[in-house]
Amino acid sequence: MAFVRSFGAAEVVTGSCHMLRLKSGIRILVDCGMFQGREEEWNAGPFGFDPKKVDLLLITHAHLDHVGRIPKLVKEGFEGMIVATKPTFELAQVVLMDSAKLMEEEFRTRYRKAQRRGEEKQVPPPLYTVEDVENLFLLPHTYARYDKPLKVAKGVRVLFRNAGHILGSATVEIDYKEEGVGKTVVFSGDLGTPHDIVTPYVADVPKADALFIESTYGDRNHKSLKKSVREFKEAVRKTLLNRGNVIIPSFAIERTQEVLCLLKQMYRNRELPHCKIFLDSPMAIRATHLFSKYHNELGPECRRFYREDGDVFGFPWLRFTSDVEDSKRINEIERGAVIIAGSGMCTGGRILHHFKNRLWNERNCVIFVGYQAEGTLGRHIVEGAQWVRIYNEDIRIRAKIYTINGFSAHADQRGLIEWMRRFEKLGKIALIHGEKEKQLLFKKAIRKQLGKRAHIVRYKEKIFL
Ligand code: ZN
């Protein structure tokens, strides 16, 4: 009998990695993501299965917690076929290159320090290198197109549908036959929301004998996006009119493009005081180019911008500063700059330089538009810190801090339940990709609103289909 085992994102949010094992022996892996935050140290550990025996890898989307361990999988012998949408492949390349470079850099720094103590042999090597990432993209792969079934093995068919989470994201449906009976197992991937500005299309799925659904926000409903957009625009306007500068820490994929869209809306509607906008993140710049390349897949407003200006995100006041020297020159600007930089939770990257240069000045502001995990510098500031230590210097926080919570690339409880309600046939429900306490609340909500039982998947537990 076929079964699914989760080797990541079971009772936690990160490290998505689920294996479908068919009775015929075929092994299909859905995602192979990085563990992040508290679970980070698990990345170096064994997968819990033999990568050499995996026949097929399906990728739902290019976020690091869904693709981050693929180079390790390849390094450890995976030679099967990879299937993903074309934008997912291209975004994954950007994401994995960035991740490999960071890991190599971190390794070099640690190694140098350990060398001075004579302990360099104890420094663990990076999980993978840039070369490993390059090798991964030499493997055979197939591009999936939304709503077009693909035959991947005898009697096995996969179908990718738009998940509306980030560019290229998909819900994956796997159809197979066992003892003459056809079955369908569905992995939701991360599900988006139809209110999204950049990727609003969330496709329905007609049937599943078993559904593995994400539950990141299964415990709550989001604030209204409209209200958040208003708050965002007001904060930008107020700061610029007060002759200050706006700093926006932002995730490179999706959130940055949303912010660019909002700023462009303001510019076109003459709501934006005169300013210079800098996208100061090489990774976000590369991602933004990919979003523009696939403008046909974006929401109606993005497509309109493209039709009318020949460019989705660009407008005269926006500059991309890939180059370090260009980035440094931003510091010379006294007022009227809007700076978008990473990392999104302020744990590294160029945002730290901008904080160091601008946090002490009460005319400036920081607008947080994304989730700040516990233990990060971003969370510390959001929670009202008066001082921060950046590059061995104590910085007084006098800039105004705005936290805007309504932007989310994930569906909330209502969104997830309504999406499930639209299935014509829905069998087993298995909850993955969520924290245990939130999953318990989600499970209750499913019971109450859909009258169905859901199961919270445990690490490596066999779920028979
Ligand atoms: Zn995601």
Write structural notes for this entry.
With 465 residues, the protein is of the alpha/beta class. It folds into 2 domains: 3-220 and 409-464, Metallo-beta-lactamase, Chain A, CATH 3.60.15; 225-403, Rossmann fold. It is 31% helix and 22% strand. The protein is built from 13 helices and 22 strands. The protein has a 7-stranded mixed sheet. Strands 7-8-9-10-11-20-21 form a 7-stranded mixed sheet, with helices on one face. A 6-stranded parallel sheet has the order 14-13-15-12-16-19. Strand 9 (170-178) and strand 10 form a beta hairpin. Helix 3 (86-117) packs antiparallel against helix 7 (282-293) and helix 12 crosses helix 13. The radius of gyration is 23 Å and the shape is globular. The protein starts with a strand and ends with a strand. The mean pLDDT is 95. Bound molecules: zinc ion. Zinc ion binds at residues 61, 63, 165, 190. The site of zinc ion (ZN) has 4 residues, from loops.
Short description:
The protein has about 475 residues and is of the alpha/beta class.
Layout of secondary structure:
Elements: E1 3-6, E2 18-21, E3 27-30, E4 56-58, H1 64-67, H2 70-75, E5 81-84, H3 86-117, H4 130-136, E6 141-143, E7 150-153, E8 156-162, E9 170-178, E10 181-187, E11 207-214, H5 225-241, E12 246-249, H6 255-268, E13 276-279, H7 282-293, H8 300-309, E14 318-320, H9 324-329, E15 337-341, H10 351-358, E16 365-368, H11 377-382, E17 387-390, E18 393-396, E19 400-403, H12 413-421, E20 425-432, H13 436-450, E21 455-456, E22 462-464
Parallel strand pairs: 3-4, 4-5, 5-6, 10-11, 11-20, 12-15, 12-16, 13-14, 13-15, 16-19, 20-21
Antiparallel strand pairs: 1-2, 1-22, 2-3, 7-8, 8-9, 9-10, 17-18
Helix pairs in contact: 3-4, 3-7, 12-13
The structure holds zinc ion (ZN).
